[in-house]
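Let us practice reading a record.
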Amino acid sequence: MCAEKIQRFLMAIVLTAAMFLFADGQMFYAMILQTLVIVMVIVWALFDFCPSLWVFKKVFGKCPQKD
């Protein structure tokens, strides 16, 4: 798998974990997880830099370009 796909799966897993924490009534931990994801997406949007994607590209490599 390549970095971009792994990063998308990781974001989905973290958001799912936050959803389960909300459903379980653990609002504090759910809010922390959601806040981390929101901050990461805002940093990515403002600076075109995603720290997790940067690390994953170093470890797993980029996805091949589609035609």
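A brief commentary: The chain has one domain: 3-59.
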